[in-house]
Amino acid sequence: MSTPNPAQIAEENRYLNDELNRVETILNLTRAEKDELSIRYNALSDRLEQSLRAQGIDLSSDTSSIEPERSILVQQNIDLRRKLEEEHQNYKRKLSNYQEGQLKQAQLVQKLQQKVLQYKKRCSELELLTEQQKLDSDRARIL
Q1: I need a surface site. Which of 22, 41, 108, 119 has the fewest CB within 10 A?
Q2: In a domain, 1, yes or no
Q3: Torsion angle in degrees (nearest 10) through CA of 127, 128, 131, 137
Q4: The Rootletin-like coiled-coil domain covers which part of the protein (predicted)?
């Protein structure tokens, strides 16, 4: 495998920085969506609880005393809340994985930037060495 030239490394570095910026933008949008969904969920839950309390339904009490239709609705509500909570947990897990990937990508970008600097330094050293050898060879020919 050949050593990449500085232009290739710089292009790769630009690509990785662009990708990192894109991922950060997506993460920020996702966070905003999560916050919005959380606010909506809490508002709906509060309104539902207030509505059920206004109708004389206590969610913590035994549902056998409630009318069958209301009992079904209460059970559906409980099931939907559980499902929403599961989806919220899945979302948190995916977000965590996404953030982990973003961190790894940022570390890779940093590592590549360090390699670019090392490569530039080595190129400069080799250019100086080549120039010095050329001067030495020119002096040897003159003498």
Answers
A1: 22
A2: no
A3: -120
A4: 92-134
